[in-house]
Each structure stands twice: as C-alpha cells, then as structure tokens.
Specification:
Length: 257
Amino acid sequence: MRKAGLVVAHTLLRIANEAGPGVTTADLDRIAREELKRAGAIPSFLDYHGYPSVICSSVNEEVVHAIPNERPLIDGDILSVDFGAIVQGWHGDAAVTIEIGEPIEEQTRLSNVTRASMWAGLAKAQPGNRLSDISNAVETTIDAAGEYGILQEYTGHGIGTEMHMDPAVPNYGAPGHGPELVPGMALAIEPMVTLGSRHVRTLADHWTVVTVDGSRASHWENTVAITEEGPWVLTELDGGAEYFAAHGIASPAASRD
C-alpha cells in the first residue's frame, strides 16, 4: 500500500504544479495516466462502476466525483482532485484542493480548514482509539473554524485490496464509538466541506455531486495505516513525519521511510 500511496502522492503533486488558468481537467487526467504508466500502476477509478476517467476533478460548487472535461480552468476556480492507484493488488487513495490563479481569501481559508480537519483525523488513527474519535476530530476542527457545511452523505472508508471497504468513516459524530482501531487497519480519511449548506445533489451524469446552494467546496484525503507505533500516512511523501513531529505525535513515518 505504501508503493501505491507514493504513486498517488507524486501524481497529485505534479497535478497541483501543472494546474492553472487555461489548463483543462482532461489535461490533468492525461497527466495522471502518464504517471500511472511510468510507475507500472493501475488506476483505481477507471471503470469503477463505469466511471470513465482516472481522476475525479471537481470545480467550484462540484464537491466530488466530477468527470474531467475540456473546459479550461480560469482564474479564481477552486479545484479538488481525487486519485487512486493500485500496485500489486493494493490501493492508495488521496485528494487535494488546488486554487487556480490568484487565491481568493475565503476559498483559501476553506481549503486550509478542510486540510487541517483531515490531519486532525489522521492524528487520531491510533491503536486503542475508536473509529468515531477520527470523525469527531474532523468535525470539531471544522466547527471551531467557523460556519461551514460538512457533507454527511459521503464519508471516508476502509481501504486495502479494494478501494472501498468497511468501515465507513464519517466526518462528524461524538467520540468513543465504533470499532476499536488496531494495528493492520488502513483507512481513507476525507472531509468534504462547503462554504454554505452541507446539502448536495447528483447531476444527470450520475456522478458529479454539487452543492444545492451553489456554494464552493473543498475535498482533502489521505490513506493512513494504523501501526503499533502510530499512524503512517501512506499517501504523503514523508509519511506524515513533518506534521506528526510538529504536533508531538508518535509515528513510524520517519523510520519506515
């Protein structure tokens, strides 16, 4: 899974570097295909329940699962890219939010809050914690930052030899509930947050999920392995070492990588 996670991390980094005004999300999908071929990896998303692309590329009020297209990105867009890869039968899955062109303050804040909530959840991926400790950490981080919408219909998930496995990992809830976290588990933690209402609908393509009120959205995700030494973020280049060290959290990331 670490090998698959590194393919995902490198690909999303390249996409973030190359996304900009005039670039299309179809261009970004082609970049992801190039990186998969280079790594000898298989796409997680392509043909999954009929999905036609390698990445999900959600722009502005699109929250998740949007299909890449030939519309050029423009200055002021906010883009979330979700991507998964398979290496030797094991999956990695992550998402990033990218601001296109000149940053817009409220969008920057939205993305930062969403990313911070993801890391708060990752930090709770510790043996002996309960699943909802992750959910609660995500929710309380977002709530403390202001009035944001937290999607409830879409959640994180278990991951391993399949992309989506039990258990579901909601981005809200009281702590202390659900299965105990034990070494060997792997989870994808992925808050999806809006500038307005949490309510969403699916477009006629049966994939693209948009906010009902048209507010813009952010989506961040990482795959984390729960080990005896603590969380190991398989889709971060450093395994999460920098973040965990800065917050005094024990992790095997530095030694294993």
